[in-house]
Amino acid sequence: MSTALLESRAAALDKTAWGEKFRFVQPRNVVFWIYLWLCGVGAVKGWQMFAPYAGYFGRALLVAGIVAVISVIVWGWWFRHIDRFERQPVGLVVTGFVWGATAATFTIALPGNTALGSLYTKLFGQVWAEDWHAGLTAPLVEETAKGVGIIVLLALAPRLVRTVTDGLLLGAFIGLGFQTSEDFLYSFAGATQGFGAHQTDGLVGSIAQRTFSDIISHPLFTALFCAGVMYLIGSTAQPRRIGRGIALIVAPIVVHGVWDSMIAIAGGSAALTIVIMVGDAIFALTALWIAFVWAHPREAHFVRDVLAPEIESGVLTDDEVTAAGGWRQQRQYVKAGGHRAERRRRRHLVRAAVDLCGDLAASKGADTVDVVTSRGEIARLRSEHPS
């Protein structure tokens, strides 16, 4: 293989730190102790909030917990699915999730929301505060509480948190942790209505409402916010882009604020509330799509650098490497195959190319057993389904 291509591969793997491990216990890192303290405080506060009700409302807490676990599994699977190239270490993902579920929720957001809501009541009156305090409190306090999480992860794993895509995916897991705790809180609140006389009815209603609202919720908000933070900070793998950073930080705050204030904005009109809800959702999803579009060229560039030597050696074609660099490129490449068998062959080849990229990242470019196996799988696909 060309020396220049191998050097480019090594440089790409060094910049992205794809394949590197995460070590959580860092006694010499002050951020590690701050993390433990804030998450510990959050866990204790959460326990103190629910423990007194565990007896009478035990069934509601159990059902809410089961639903929360199912939600985490479903959303977690999806976020790992879109982590396309070299997935973040599970330990780092769990660290972000725990921050969102404990420190961001119970240590920072709940006291902050309460304090700011009380201030609004004193300054503007009870009626105004009931209409607007959610939309003018939660976006500022909660997005900041969750956004601090990406700074914490950056301090704990500076080599692993480097690109905007890292911010998007880790931010989604931080937001998922926050959403899980918040859903549990709302589900429990629904079960305790009417002094708990109809726990199941109230719980089902709360779960249904939260399941719907979770489509445009904290994982999306935090993914955008943390991507914006990564643009503002910059790294060896990601040039600083202040304009994009500010835009991605402001966007979820605005979306969150409108979402929480849509009834007040609509003046009580059900029809206008639906219009605002749909418009806000479209804006949020569009912002997320733009964030991925902005992040894609850097990721695709690194993928090409990692896989370029495989083109030279004949393992992959240029079109296959291009398709491995993004979902849209993959769809175009697969669609161009024409008949079903060829489209299936192309889809499997692209997946195999992505797997090879991950194995090369884990081995830092060395020809390990996994790398050789991935190359063999690509060769097998070609022999069984010749074009």
UniProtKB/TrEMBL annotation:
<keyword id="KW-0482">Metalloprotease</keyword>
<keyword id="KW-0812">Transmembrane</keyword>
<feature type="transmembrane region" description="Helical">
    <location>
        <begin position="272"/>
        <end position="295"/>
    </location>
</feature>
<dbReference type="Pfam" id="PF13367">
    <property type="entry name" value="PrsW-protease"/>
</dbReference>
<feature type="transmembrane region" description="Helical">
    <location>
        <begin position="30"/>
        <end position="50"/>
    </location>
</feature>
<keyword id="KW-1133">Transmembrane helix</keyword>
<protein>
    <submittedName>
        <fullName>PrsW family intramembrane metalloprotease</fullName>
    </submittedName>
</protein>
<keyword id="KW-0472">Membrane</keyword>
<dbReference type="GO" id="GO:0008237">
    <property type="term" value="F:metallopeptidase activity"/>
</dbReference>
<keyword id="KW-0378">Hydrolase</keyword>
<feature type="transmembrane region" description="Helical">
    <location>
        <begin position="90"/>
        <end position="110"/>
    </location>
</feature>
<dbReference type="InterPro" id="IPR026898">
    <property type="entry name" value="PrsW"/>
</dbReference>
<feature type="transmembrane region" description="Helical">
    <location>
        <begin position="215"/>
        <end position="234"/>
    </location>
</feature>
<feature type="transmembrane region" description="Helical">
    <location>
        <begin position="246"/>
        <end position="266"/>
    </location>
</feature>
<keyword id="KW-0645">Protease</keyword>
<feature type="transmembrane region" description="Helical">
    <location>
        <begin position="56"/>
        <end position="78"/>
    </location>
</feature>
